[in-house]
């Protein structure tokens, strides 16, 4: 066999192998639809978003004394949201709730405490606008933040969307 013929046959075999690989990568029937699992431009199955609340922090603004001579604080709650996944998350809501006593239940902390996020890129972290409160009873208050509180984003881990911290006067 001549050298040129051998090279030509090798190129043909490599071309067939590459085209079959391309077909396998683009076979989306085996991978599912984008609503089930995101697919990259090459057709390869990708991961999912993973929304978390890395921190719920407090920023004391000022201390006051009420008419009954009780000291209380005005303070801000600062929430950080992160997408730990490898796929961008679409729009979702973050809910801030408050529990003000032992055995109490969590309730929406304020009228503006269900915050809309237009989306979050993979690996990105954002800090939401501060929400201001007081502890008029001078007691501890537990604040709980939940990312994707309405469950609109399909995530790789649906169990890590929440974080709770206690404000201590």
CATH architecture of the largest domain: Sandwich
Question: Count the helices. How many?
Answer: 2
Low-confidence stretches: 6-36, 40-45
Main beta sheet strand tally, sense and closure: 5 strands, antiparallel
The name of the CATH superfamily of the largest domain reads Immunoglobulins
Terminal CA distance reads 89 Å
Find the structural class using helix and strand composition: alpha+beta
Radius of gyration: 26 Å
CATH class of the largest domain: Mainly Beta
Which term fits the overall shape? elongated
Name the helix and strand elements from N-terminus to C-terminus, one letter apiece: HHEEEEEEEEE
What is the residue-averaged pLDDT?
Answer: 80
CATH topology of the largest domain: Immunoglobulin-like
What's the total number of strands? 9
Task: Determine the strand fraction and express it as a percent band.
Answer: 35-45%
The total number of structural domains is: 2
Secondary structure elements and pairings:
Elements: H1 3-25, H2 28-31, E1 51-65, E2 71-83, E3 92-99, E4 107-108, E5 114-117, E6 125-127, E7 131-134, E8 141-147, E9 162-167
Antiparallel strand pairs: 1-2, 2-6, 2-7, 3-4, 3-5, 3-8, 8-9
């Amino acid at each position: 066999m001549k050298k040129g013929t051998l090279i030509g046959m090798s190129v043909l075999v490599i071309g067939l192998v590459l085209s079959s690989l391309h077909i396998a990568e683009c076979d989306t029937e085996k991978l599912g639809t984008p609503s089930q699992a995101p697919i990259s431009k090459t057709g390869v199955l990708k991961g999912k978003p993973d929304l978390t609340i890395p921190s719920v922090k407090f920023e004391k603004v000022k201390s006051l004394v009420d008419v009954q001579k009780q000291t209380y604080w005005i303070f801000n709650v600062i929430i950080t949201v992160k997408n730990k996944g490898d796929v961008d998350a679409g729009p979702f809501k973050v809910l801030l709730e408050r529990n003000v006593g032992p055995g109490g239940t969590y309730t929406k902390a304020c009228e503006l405490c269900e915050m809309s996020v237009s989306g979050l890129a993979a690996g990105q972290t954002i800090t939401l606008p501060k929400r201001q409160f007081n502890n008029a009873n001078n007691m501890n208050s537990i604040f709980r933040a939940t990312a994707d509180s309405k469950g609109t984003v399909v995530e790789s881990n649906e169990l890590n969307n929440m974080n709770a911290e206690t404000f201590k006067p």
